[in-house]
Design brief:
Number of strands: 34
Largest sheet: 7 strands, mixed
Shape: globular
Number of helices: 4
CATH superfamily of the largest domain: Cupredoxins -  blue copper proteins
Helix content: 10-25%
Radius of gyration: 28 Å
Structural class: mainly beta
Bound molecules: copper (II) ion
Strand content: 35-45%
Number of domains: 4
């Protein structure tokens, strides 16, 4: 009995045990299956996201919709702009400068590796033009024909984009749009007329995020045909972050000599992806030009900070005082001004010791209220042939197969971003709205054209007309800008935080019926950002 009982009990227990085991096995299997389904689904979503966000092998940005290989443009041709598909087709090669001119400024830029030293304890392996970064500052006179012979001695493809210059489309240097990236060992010649005076710059537009960051940039200064001001000292300065912030590749103090009473112009360029806060100590100064374009009747400023965003240029002018020197200082990431790096203008014996570093909270320069208005400038009341609102955003997702941040224009990332079709002679208005604080500033840059800034946060500018090729739209800010469609071609409009551009923040502004033989994507290896 006991035995039976026991065995019965045992049996019962065993049966129950088996039941539990069976149930837990079932539960385990079901959980495993569920988990597997979730994983497969998540994997599929991730895989699909990665795959669908990946650039196609070949994307042709041309607007001649009769081509056999329409690819992505087929979508654009269906966007309802009928003029895109009618009329004679202009090959991009036809959009070029004259072969020769009375005055020609010829340059050679050789892309080559170099080990650069920025001062004690700071150095980097860089990609340079002619062995330095910044590369040589190219000087030309307004109206001259500029030719630049690019020689590539790097192990990667390279192009040169002429930032802010209204070049003919074929000289724009955008890999996959206006040319193929220049392969190692190969050469390419850019040719364009320096129509506008001012401070411009050049940088690679093949893998621009990586290549500009590694040093492939320099300044271009076009002197006015009829100067309206005289500068005794004129120096171009590029800010760039290596392992340390530098002015013209110096992490310490850069000395510029100037005598009392002399006029000095500092042409400042920010080659980084984020804004820098700068100030000038020792004399009143003027902001003479923005992005190469003179401001009307600029007034002296003291105790004022300037925020210079990615790719922007600020020309500062000042007169040397009778005594002492002038210091250009930059703020660190916390907004505190530092003595390194610094630019000292004066006698070579002057030292930074006498300079009083300003506090972080001095007033900010705002071009919306600076200088005097000018009659006849395009303004909010002007007639616009078309107006487009472009919302600037950021989210998490996939960009060209990579998980992480994605930066968007109207909710889409390149190449799915909308294309703006313009016709010669039109005046186009754009409204940039930065509604995603996640992304920070978006310095929006247009190729081949210049923005006339109409309004900031809905309020018309009250001071000087402002022309910029790169408009910095901060979080929750809105900028209204306009541009004349006066340079036919296929042009990029993108964020010049090149990390953002590399992660989707690009679109095209195109004229109808332009064909290009070049393509972006894995087949050609052309990746403009
Ligand atoms: Cu951006």
């Amino acid at each position: 009995m006991k035995k039976i009982d026991r065995s019965g009990q045992t049996d019962e227990m065993t049966t129950q045990g088996i039941g539990k085991k069976k149930k837990s096995k079932k539960f385990f299997r079901r959980t495993l299956l569920g988990l597997l389904i979730v994983l497969v689904a998540a994997g599929s979503v991730i895989g699909l996201g990665m795959w669908t966000s990946r650039y196609p092998d070949k994307m042709n940005m041309g607007t001649n919709c009769n081509m056999s290989d329409m690819g992505y443009m087929a979508n654009m041709c269906q966007m309802g702009n009928t003029s895109v598909s009618s009329g004679p087709v202009i090959p991009i090669a036809k959009l070029q400068a004259p072969q020769t001119a009375e005055h020609v400024d010829a340059f050679t830029l050789t892309a080559e590796p170099a080990h650069l030293s920025f001062g004690p304890g700071h150095s980097a392996d860089a990609w340079t033009f002619n062995g330095t970064s910044p590369g040589p500052t190219l000087h030309a006179r307004q109206g001259d024909l500029i030719t630049v012979h690019l020689v590539n001695h790097l192990s990667v493809g390279v192009t040169i984009h002429w930032h802010g210059v209204a070049v003919p489309n074929s000289a724009d240097g955008v890999a996959g749009v206006t040319q193929d990236a220049v392969k190692p060992g190969q050469t390419y010649t850019y040719r364009f007329v320096a129509k506008d005076a001012g401070t411009y710059w050049y940088h690679s537009h093949q893998e621009s995020f990586e290549e500009t960051g590694k040093g492939l940039f320099g300044l271009l200064v076009v002197d006015p045909a009829k100067p309206t001001t005289h500068d005794d000292v004129d120096v171009a300065l590029a800010l760039h972050s290596w392992d340390v912030l530098t002015f013209n590749a110096l992490a310490g103090t850069l000395h510029i000599s100037a005598r009392p009473g002399q006029w000095v112009r500092l042409r400042l360029l920010n080659t980084d992806n984020y804004a820098h806060l700068l100030t000038l100590v020792g004399a009143p100064f003027m902001v003479a030009a923005l992005d190469g374009h003179d401001l009307n009747q600029p007034t002296p400023l003291t105790g004022t900070s300037i925020s210079i965003d990615a790719a922007q240029r600020y020309d500062l002018r000042f007169r040397m005082p009778e005594h002492g020197s002038i210091a250009l200082l930059a703020a660190n990431d916390n907004g505190q001004y530092q003595k390194t790096p610094a630019v000292m203008v004066g006698q070579s014996s002057d030292s930074l010791a006498s300079i009083v570093v300003p506090t972080a909270h001095q007033k900010m320069f705002d071009f919306a209220f600076y200088g005097q208005p000018q009659q006849g400038t395009v303004n909010l009341q002007s007639h616009f042939d078309a107006t487009y609102t472009i919302s600037l955003g950021a989210m998490f997702g996939f960009s060209n197969g990579r998980p992480g941040p994605v930066f968007t224009l109207d909710g889409k990332s390149f190449p799915d971003t909308p294309t703006i079709v313009v016709r010669p002679g039109q005046l186009i208005r754009l409204r940039f709205v930065n509604d995603s604080p996640l992304g920070g500033d978006h310095p929006m840059h247009i190729h081949g054209h210049t923005f006339i800034v109409l309004a900031k946060n809905g309020h018309a500018l009250t001071g000087s007309p402002v022309y910029q090729d790169t408009v910095a739209v901060g979080p929750h800010e809105t900028y209204d800008v306009a541009f004349y469609a006066n340079n036919p071609g296929l042009w990029m409009l993108h964020c010049h935080n090149l990390f953002h551009a590399n992660h989707g923040m690009d679109m095209m502004v195109v004229y109808p019926n332009i064909s290009t033989p070049y393509t972006i994507g894995y087949a050609s290896g052309n990746f403009p950002d």
